[in-house]
Amino acid sequence: MKRIVTFLLLVALALSVLTACNTGENNESSAVSVGGTNNNTTNEYKDVDGNYVPKHEVRDMDGRLFTIIVRGSAFGTYQSDDFTTESELYGDLINDAVKKRNDKIEELYNVKLDVIKSDTIDNDIRLDCTSNLGTYDAIMPSLPALATFASERYLVDLTTLENFDENAPWYEQSCSKAFSFGDKLYFTTGDITILNKVCTPSVLFNKEMAQKYNMPDLYKLVESKEWTFDKMVELAKQVNNISTSDGSYSEDNIYGMVSSWGDAASFYGASGETICRKDSDDLPYLSIGASDRSITIAQKVLEEFATGDWFIHAQDFQGFQHGFFIGGDVFDLGDFENGHLTRDVAAGHGAVFLTQL
Q: Are 213 and 238 in contact (CB under 8 A)?
């Protein structure tokens, strides 16, 4: 059965990951270099101009086709535009940068990149692996899919690859530590993608509503470390106005926040607490409840979201973000990528990181 080598990837709730496939050809001729930005930068990985450079030798791939399968348009804002140059979501700035990167890789390694956007990517990958077709050199599915593929033995340990440098600054070190299992690393994330940036959990806010209700400058609250969970809830409740007698949803209601079922976990993570930790053998164990602080934070967040009508769950009604984008609700919990939905809306919108607790 075919095994896939994972070497460049991405993350978030709808995280996508890039993996390389072992097609049975000589891996000595299939090295790919990608630059980027990361806080773990060292001069060891930079040239005199400050650009990232790989340590491994550049090899001629003899003009061969390198096929990458990525998430297609059916995935909406979570589709991959990391290798294509016609993105409608990100526009010319990203498209031009992708083209420049692709052209450089093709010239440097004498290779032709072939990108396939698939709406059935998981099935396509599984078929390719189980049939030993070797169609794809690299794959970019979601994180849950990669975890499944690893458990099904389709992926190999990245650290066993000759040209994989796990300490390189274009890989996100915190994610590599989180994703490893028993000192084996089957996928990680880094600067190969933009999705791990736009999928950053955040709080979008309606500037017109904030001004109408005389809210403080949220950016200054962040800078002064006063942007806390309690402050966010306080401001959301300040604008909340439910006009229906039975509390049922109505477009005439004003909600302090448009939320989602999974947001409690996001706020718990923003506190610095984790659901799992690693033991000395790099094996995960449940850490929630291991300290009094983790219990206190979990209870605080869950209790606040379990009571009151100051927020509305996105999944509870169709067109959940309508009120927020037309100016009826003040906060929307989501990812930075939701910002593109505000482009054609008259009301101004901003974004801040999740709150402290």
A: yes
Residue type, 276: C
How many helices, marked H, and strands, marked E, lie in the chain?
11, 13
| Cβ atoms of residues 58 and 109 within 8 Å | yes
pLDDT digits (tens, 9 = 90+) for 140-175: 898 889 999 999 989 889 999 888 888 899 888 888
Note whether 227 and 221 are within 8 A (CB).
yes
Mapped onto helix, strand or coil, the DSSP state of residue 355 is: coil
Q: How far apart are the first and last CA of the chain?
A: 48
Q: What is the CA radius of gyration of the chain?
A: 23
Q: What is the pLDDT of residues 260-296, one digit of tens each?
A: 777 888 888 888 888 889 999 999 998 888 889 998 9
Sort 146 into a burial class: Cβ within 10 Å, 0-12 / 13-18 / 19+: buried
Amino acid at 308: G
Q: Which two tokens stand for residue 230?
A: 């309690």
Length of the chain: 357
Residues 6+ apart with CB under 8 A from 74: 119
* Sign of the four-CA dihedral 223, 224, 228, 233: negative
Closest CA to 331 of 308, 344, 314, 317: 314
Could you say which DSSP state residue 79 is in?
A: S
